[in-house]
Amino acid sequence: MAGEPTVPILSDGTVTLRALDDRDVAGVLEQCLDPVSIRWTNVPVPFGLADAVAFVDEIAPGAWADGSQWIFAVVSDEGYAGNVALRDEGHGRAEIAYGAHPAARGTGVMEAGLRLLLEWGFVTQGVQTVVWRADVGNWASRKLAWRLGFSLDGVLRHSQVSRGVLVDAWVGTLLADEPREPSGRWLTAQVLDGDGVRLRPVTHGDVPRIVEACSDERTQHWLGRMPSPYTEATARTWLENNTEKLATGRSLTWAVADPVTDLVLASVEVFGVNDDDAEVGYWTHPDARGRGVMRAAVPLVTGWAFAELGLRRVRSFAAVDNTASRHVIEASGFTQTGEERLGTVVRDGLADLALYDVLAEEWSRR
Questions:
Q1: What is the Cα–Cα distance from 112 to 180, expressed in whole angstroms?
Q2: Are residues 209 and 163 in the same domain?
């Protein structure tokens, strides 16, 4: 039809952005039937072949024609990988949107496609600000936005519609003159093997053991700020908070697991991370006490913190009367540097705190 805009072809030699066409119908259908797409996007439910055809033949071309959205298919050597769009909000602003075919997730294809889209939007279309939004909890979208250089500017409460319900949304921005690379650290819990233990990411399958450990009377006493009662909901909230801390580079938690059964024996955390130092903390499941679990785990994460984070110092603390915890810290190579009177909270009030640390040069001599 005369006057219809020509959709450009953008390519980096491996990934291509182009107009959607009939070759993409099957891929669009598969993508929109995928549970992840249904969970995090507003793709119609039910979604059928007619809906996929309408998206390819009517919705996407119509958005180009009226200027409301610039929608592209993302294509690699394996075929259709998803679709990406910039939604024109006027005054040099556009919202970015993207959805991946299940087979393309984790391959880097969508990141490459979005880089092509952003370059075209900033340079050719004169966009000055690109806005990213996602439902809170959509960690895959958030991590991809982080890789592209988007800031996380906050949470807009009950601002986004998901399946007819208002939900909280993350919002971030990327400006035309900003680098398209992460501006901060996103930590990852790598698997670490030690003497009789394996440190791995904590999962929702660990919740029953977490509840048992954190409901234990001894744990509750020495970790006085531990919620009580400690329920399954408490554990799931803790897991979600751990993910947020990973994403902001503040903290990293491992499950300390039996290397044979994978049963959780303890948890160890590096937290309060900054450019110079961090703190190590931990708890142990009651049935794992006295087995040397933490004496194996604490040196593992301390060495990881020096090697991977480039820290100058790692700290650890324990209540003065918590002899078991202090023995772990001292056996792990930390030096006591002093005490802080009434420096920690135990279940029945304030208690004196023993202060420990180890410096990078000290650790390297171990």
A1: 12
A2: no
